Amino acid sequence: MSYDLYFSVREGRPAISDEEFAAYFNGRRHYQLNDTQAWYENKDTGVYFSFDYGDEEFDDEEIDDDEEEALDEDDPEEEEFPALASFNLNFSRPSFFVLEADIEVGQFVRNFDLVIQDPQSDRQGEYLSEEFISTWSRTNAGISLYMARQYQSETHLYKGDELTRIWQWNYQQEGRQKEIGDNTFVPNISFLEMNGEVKSFVVWGDGMSIQLPKVDVLILARQELKPHGGLGNDEEPEYSIVEWTDVESLLRRYSRNDLPIENFTLDYELVPEEIELFFRKQAITGLEGIKTLAMDLIHDVEFFSSGDVVSV
After folding, report:
1. Does pTM surpass 0.70?
2. Residue 99 has what pLDDT?
3. Domain range for residue 106?
């Protein structure tokens, strides 16, 4: 199940060619062109959707004569919408998917000065960002709950406002890295399941200089800072999983920022003694007790107001 939009040029404007369509998406990040489809997938945020060139609203082979006659009788004076491209965003996804999709749809519409047809809102005309976001969000919440109930599938839940802030961090991660430079690492925030709970996490290696966002747990990766001092770079790193509260007091002496999520900039050339000591003293936990979760498996806890779904 998906949300579909259709695009057309304004009256009197020339149509967009498939070459113009391809050239536009070739010039944008996170897109891969497959024949007439522009597939968007942002590895940093986990968001994906697609644009297709051509009118795919109806497949004539799937509509029999009675159905075609019924369609014609619904509104005999309604003009056909000359769609030149379409957009597709799946449902049963985290709420932030639509925020990233809105950025791309809005830019596509502005670039070619397009109008849209929105079957979900039964409207055509100007692209309205707020309408798209609200309609998709409302339908997505209902379908997410329905799918969980229907299939009794395991559902991974997290607070919606926190999901939005984590998406903002990940969406801005590449820009932050360029701004801060190569000497300080800006990590992506990911999710894992541990002891039946969904937790956000980042990986911090060997006390390196880092811009560290507030997450539920940190995975400390130790190669040079192993408790026994390390036996060479060819060995596998050791891992410790620590709660944010265990490291919070250590971070308070470093530069702090609140947007889009509370974060601390630990900027140094040599690992400070207190950071090195913190790494070395942590018990080795390994990673056997956790399961990493893809972003599209996380759902807003607000979608599920009743207790008749299997959740973690």
Report:
1. yes
2. 98
3. 2-150
